[in-house]
Every structure is written in C-alpha cells, then in structure tokens.
Specification:
The protein has six helices and 16 strands. The protein is an alpha+beta fold and 296 residues long. The strands form two sheets. Strands 2-3-4-1-5-8-7-6 form an eight-stranded mixed beta sheet. It has an eight-stranded mixed beta sheet with strand order 10-11-12-9-13-16-15-14, covered by helices on one side.
C-alpha cells in the first residue's frame, strides 16, 4: 500500500494506547507486529510517547495513562479535523462532553478529548507536523476503527452533527460510518478503488466508509460504549498464538466472519484490540454470534 500523507476532516487518522507500563507494551507489540518504536518525548519530565513504525512509516503509538485518568489500559481513536475548537463546540451542541479542551502538542498538532452522549471516548487531531498514520491496511498497521454502542440512533445523530457522517447498513445490526466524498479523495491515489471494491462484492458506497458501528448485545450491562481498533494481520491464528506466548490473552479465538478471519486479543496491560486478515472468499460467511465482551 502507498504511504499516506494526511487525511481529510472527519476521517480517523491515528491511534495510540495508554498503558500502565508503556515499556512492557512496547516490547509486546514490537514482537507481535514487528514494530520499531522510538520515544519522541523531548524531556524526562514528559510522559513517554513511543511512535511505532513499519518500514520507517508511523503506524501507532504507546504512551502512559494520563494523571487522574482511570488506571485502565486502552486504545484511543483520533479523528482528523480542521479546527479543534470548532469541533469542541459541535460536540457540546450535540450532547457530548469535553474531557480535555483543545491543546497544543508541541509543533506536532493540536488535540482534544471528548466523550459522546453514551460515554464512548474519542480524540480529535488538528494536524501540524504530525500527519497521522502513514501506513495503514497492511500487516501490523491499523485497519479499522469501530464504535460499540447501545443506542445507534443517538450515535447517528451525534456523529452526523460533529463529523457529517452517514451510515451504510451491511447486515447483522452492523453499520458502516460513511463520509460523503471520501471515496473521491481515495481515488486520487487509487483511481480504480471503486472498481476494486465492486470486484470483491463490496456494496455501493463502500468507498466512503471511514469506520464501523456495532450494537452491544443485550445482557452485557458491564460493557461500556467505546471505540475499538482493528489491526491487519497476515495470519489471525498465528497472531493469536503469538499474543498468548507474549503474555497477552485471546479473548475471542480466531474465527471466520464476513470478509475476514479475525481474533480479539488483550495485551498484557489489558487493552483490547482485534486482529483481522482480509479473506474475500469469506464474503458469504454468516456473522458469528456476539462473544462475551470484557468490561474494560
């Protein structure tokens, strides 16, 4: 895949993981995904911020849990915006909560942290020097971001007002978040992208997809609404085995699902992620029954 140099407003552009032991998480993911990590913090007084790279291209980051935040490891999703302050106003008007007002991150960019009306946390990124993930959709790199929610209707209202997102139902209660015009943007680097998607049976409009939305099953009252991350892998079974060997946990064993073979993992700190291999021949595989999810 070609390296990316920026995104358009409304597109998830970056992920990082907040960890109780960042160095241990760096060791885990470096072995699991082949990342090369560099601490880009400018002084010992700053919390560590390890940029993870593949072939020299930024893919994700590992940092410590912010002071005062719950001591729970997590993966964090960032959405590209033109103006963090304007986005904060939209979040407030739409019923969300600002947890960290917009602030500068050196010359890298400007960010803010929000919660949607159901409490799912997400961040926004107003770019400076840092232009988001440079490598995506290949083994060891970010493949997808998804919202788990109990109130899809309220989520549609909120994210539509904040980012202009619409939805594309794909069955099984799962919907895709779409950003009108995103496919046109992607065509600049991949002129045949719509034809490629049609050739593997993707529904019309899939080129505009920026994320997914899935309902939290009934009975999972302890599971919070949240944003999740999926990383692409070459072999979901091998990754699950390796994660276990490295001290992680296989939350959902490898299984076939529409378009993919996937597994849900927890790293040694407890942060949840999905590892997924694209399998076009699985397009007709029925969606699996929702597995019990962890509360944190």
């Amino acid at each position: 895949m070609p390296e990316r140099d920026g995104y358009i407003p409304g597109v998830p552009c970056w992920v990082d993981t907040s960890q109780p032991d960042p160095q241990a998480a760096v060791a885990f993911y470096s072995e699991l995904f082949g990342w090369e990590c560099e601490n880009v913090s400018t002084s010992e007084a700053e919390p560590p911020y390890f940029i993870a790279r593949i072939r020299g291209g930024d893919v994700a980051a590992v940092t410590s849990i912010a002071p005062g935040a719950p001591a729970v490891a997590s993966w964090n999703t960032y959405v590209w915006v033109e103006n963090a302050e304007e986005t904060a106003r939209r979040v407030s008007s739409a019923g969300g909560t600002c947890l960290a007002e917009p602030f500068d991150v050196g010359d890298a960019g400007r960010m803010a942290v929000f919660a949607d009306p159901e409490g799912a946390l997400f961040s926004v990124w107003q770019p400076g020097r840092h232009r988001g993930a440079q490598i995506v959709n290949e083994a060891g790199a970010l493949n997808f971001n998804g919202l788990d929610t109990r109130d899809p209707e309220r989520a549609r209202e909120f994210y539509g007002a904040v980012f202009g997102w619409e939805t594309l139902p794909i069955g099984g209660g799962v919907e895709m978040w779409t950003l009108p015009g995103y496919g046109d943007h992607l065509e600049r680097d991949r002129p045949a992208i719509r034809q490629e998607m049609a050739a593997v049976g993707a529904p019309a409009g899939f080129a505009d997809v920026v994320a997914s939305m899935s309902p939290i099953p009934d009975g999972q009252d302890r599971v919070p609404a949240r944003w999740s991350v999926t990383f692409a892998v070459d072999d979901a079974d091998a990754i699950a085995a390796k994660a276990s060997e490295l001290g992680g946990t296989v939350v959902v064993p490898p299984s076939d699902a529409p378009w993919v073979r996937m597994t849900v993992l927890a790293d040694p700190g407890g942060a949840i992620l999905t590892a997924s291999k694209f399998v076009p021949s699985n397009r007709t595989v029925p969606a699996p029954e929702p597995a019990p999810a962890r509360a944190a």
